[in-house]
Amino acid sequence: MQDQLNAAVTPHRRLPWNKGKLIGAKPPLRPKHVWSIRTKLQMESRIRDLAMFNLAIDSKLRGCDVVAIRVEDVAAGGYTADRATVRQKKTGRPVRFELSEQTRQAVDDYLKTAGKRSGDFLFTGHRGPNRSITTRQYARLVSEWVGSIGLDPRLFGTHSLRRTKATLIYRRTGNLRAVQLLLGHTKIESTVRYLGIEVDDALAIAEQVDV
Question: Given a cut of 80, is residue 191 above it in pLDDT?
Answer without folding.
Answer: yes
